[in-house]
Amino acid sequence: MIRFERVTKRYADGTTAVDDLSFEVAEGELVTLVGPSGCGKTTTMMMINRLIEPTEGKIFVDGEDISQVDPVQLRRRIGYVIQQVGLFPHRTILDNTATVPALVGWKRAKAKARAAELLDMVGLDPKKYGSRYPDQLSGGQRQRVGVARALAADPPVLLMDEPFGAVDPVVREQLQDQFLEMQASVRKTVVMVTHDIEEAVRLGDRIAVYGQGRIEQFDSPGAVLGNP
Ligand code: ADP
Ligand code: ADP
Fold first, then answer.
1. Which residue numbers delimit the ABC transporter domain (predicted)?
2. Which end of the chain is more exposed for a tag (fewer CB within 10 A), N or C?
3. 167 φ, ψ to 5°?
């Protein structure tokens, strides 16, 4: 579903963030990118939805060379969840979640019904929380809304950058569990950045262990734990 072919990213100041990287993520697979800060995880991920352009090499999504795909069209197929989810403060949780279906042209009632379904899926009762505003939710609940919103247009691919990083360990574990449960039913192709090896191993079908600009190991949780 996602393929990197000898991809290098050098920033304008000469920093090589990603160095001749090749890998593939299969359809329905959840791959976690783990490693120390500054080793190129975020850069890798942001090249998949063309928020960052590679300096060299090619990236394919669903067989298509993404340099040939309009970025706006591409991002409709790729949900994106970041650590500090930016919700619209003056819109309710239901409206925040319904934004994307509304943007892609759904009728209001259909978009709201879909939003309610998604909130339910991420473990937020739409009846209880749908009419609240973002500042009336906890950090963990806001992250759930972020996940619901990213799934709203039903994209085949989901990119997540430390999605559970900003919450305390107990909530973090709840979010992880909920996410695994949801992923078991929706089976998105997921690339998730984390700096937490435990999270990487717990969630990933496979784990890409980063060194400086490179993937040093790309393997199953068992193999990564057996050979750290
Ligand atoms: P993390 O991945 O550790 O949560 P960030 O993704 O915010 O942190 O940044 C990763 C690294 O990239 C950090 O070392 C940060 O200083 C650096 N960085 C981010 N943006 C820029 C930039 N525009 N110019 C230079 N360095 C940057
Ligand atoms: P990670 O997500 O693993 O923390 P990043 O992909 O954010 O790593 O960063 C990889 C390297 O690229 C770091 O050395 C970082 O400082 C650098 N970097 C990130 N963004 C920029 C930028 N916009 N300009 C220059 N250097 C950057």
1. 2-228
2. C
3. -120, 165
**Distance in Å, CA 37 to ligand 2 centroid:** 9
**Amino acid of residue 180:** L
Q: 158 CA distance to ligand 2 centroid (A)?
A: 21
Q: Which of 210, 203, 209 is nearest to 226 (CA)?
A: 209
- What DSSP element (H or E) covers 217? strand 214-219
Say if residues 30 and 190 touch (Cβ distance below 8 Å).
yes
What's the CA gap between 92 and 206, in Å, rounded?
A: 36
3-state SS class at 14: coil
Which ligand lies nearest to the CA atom of residue 43 in the structure? 2
Q: Tell me the one-letter amino acid at 147.
A: V
Of 56, 52, 50, 53, give the one whose Cα is nearest residue 70.
50
Question: Who contacts 76 (Cβ-Cβ below 8 Å, separation ≥6)?
Answer: 104, 153, 155
Structure confidence at residue 104 as a pLDDT band (50, 70, 90): low
Instruction: Name residues whose C-beta falls within 8 Å of residue 38's C-beta, 6 or more positions apart in sequence.
Output: none
At residue 182 the predicted structure's pLDDT band, cuts being 50, 70 and 90, is confident
For the stretch 10-46, pLDDT in tens is: 999 999 999 999 999 999 999 999 999 999 999 999 9
Phi, psi of 135 (to 5 degrees): -75, 0
Where do the H-state alpha helices sit in 122-168? 126-129, 139-151
Q: Which ligand is nearest to the CA of 35?
A: 2
Rounded CA separation 79/26 (Å)? 17
Query: 78-81 and 157-161 as β-strands: parallel, antiparallel, unpaired?
Result: parallel
